[in-house]
Amino acid sequence: MENSLRSCFTVAFMVLLLSAGQLQKTEAQSRCDSVQLSWCLQSIVSNIPPSQDCCRRLRGQQACLCRETRDPTFGGYLRHPGARRVATACGVTFPRCD
């Protein structure tokens, strides 16, 4: 009986862990906010170095950059050559988006 209870507890714990991992993935996806990239627009279209706020927000959106390149509002800016320059200055690896 004790082994059965222990097995049941172990299975329940594993299900909980797997669910938590899926929740974290969903939360990360919901954090994509193209408006955060507006802090970098001036640096993208000019030769002004990016601000610390721009870099912080760009790092926060790094996982979303491919998705954001398709955004009708900011996608054009992210496809601009200055976007890669700003990303490099901020230490952000700009992904190859297919």
TrEMBL record:
Q: Give the record's keywords alphabetically.
A: Lipid-binding, Signal, Transport
InterPro entries in UniProt: Bifun_inhib/LTP/seed_sf, Bifunc_inhib/LTP/seed_store, nsLTP2
Question: What are its GO biological-process terms?
Answer: lipid transport
Q: Which GO terms describe its molecular function?
A: lipid binding
The Bifunctional inhibitor/plant lipid transfer protein/seed storage helical domain covers 35-97
**First and last residue of the signal peptide:** 1-28
Note the Gene3D superfamilies from the entry.
Plant lipid-transfer and hydrophobic proteins (1.10.110.10)
Name it.
Bifunctional inhibitor/plant lipid transfer protein/seed storage helical
SUPFAM superfamilies found in the cross-reference section:
Bifunctional inhibitor/lipid-transfer protein/seed storage 2S albumin
